[in-house]
């Protein structure tokens, strides 16, 4: 299956793109998508616990299943003032 990954802020800087397709095996979970990206870009690994995930516009847990064509957004913590 192929999902579309949307990446913001610091995560975008690490990945080097705002979005990208990601091919995963059928039955993959959200955490599998993160693991696949982190395997390619190890600098993402320390940010896993502070990153929220949205699937098709709704915040979800990382143990949620993915479906072909899903849009997955990785949302890092936001700071500022």
Q: Alpha-carbon distance between the termini?
A: 40 Å
What is the string of helix and strand elements?
EHEHEEE
The shape, in one word, is globular
CATH topology: Ubiquitin-like (UB roll)
Name of the CATH superfamily = Beta-grasp domain
Name the CATH architecture. Answer: Roll
Structural class: alpha+beta
Query: Which percent range fits the helix content?
Result: 10-25%
Biggest sheet, open or closed, and with what strands and sense?
Answer: 5 strands, mixed
Average pLDDT number? 93
Number of strands: 5
Regarding CATH, which class? Answer: Alpha Beta
The stretches of 5 or more residues where confidence is low (pLDDT under 50) are none
What is Rg? 12 Å
Number of domains: 1
List the strand order in the largest sheet: 2-1-5-3-4
Oligomer: single chain
Strand content: 25-35%
Supply the number of helical segments: 2
């Amino acid at each position: 299956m192929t999902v579309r990954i949307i990446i913001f802020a610091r995560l975008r800087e690490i990945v080097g793109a705002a979005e990208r397709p990601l091919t995963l095996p059928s039955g993959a979970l959200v955490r599998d998508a993160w693991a696949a990206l982190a395997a390619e870009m190890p600098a993402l690994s320390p940010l896993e616990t502070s990153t929220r995930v949205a699937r098709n516009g709704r915040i979800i847990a990382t143990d949620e299943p993915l479906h072909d064509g899903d849009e997955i957004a990785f949302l890092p913590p936001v700071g500022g003032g």
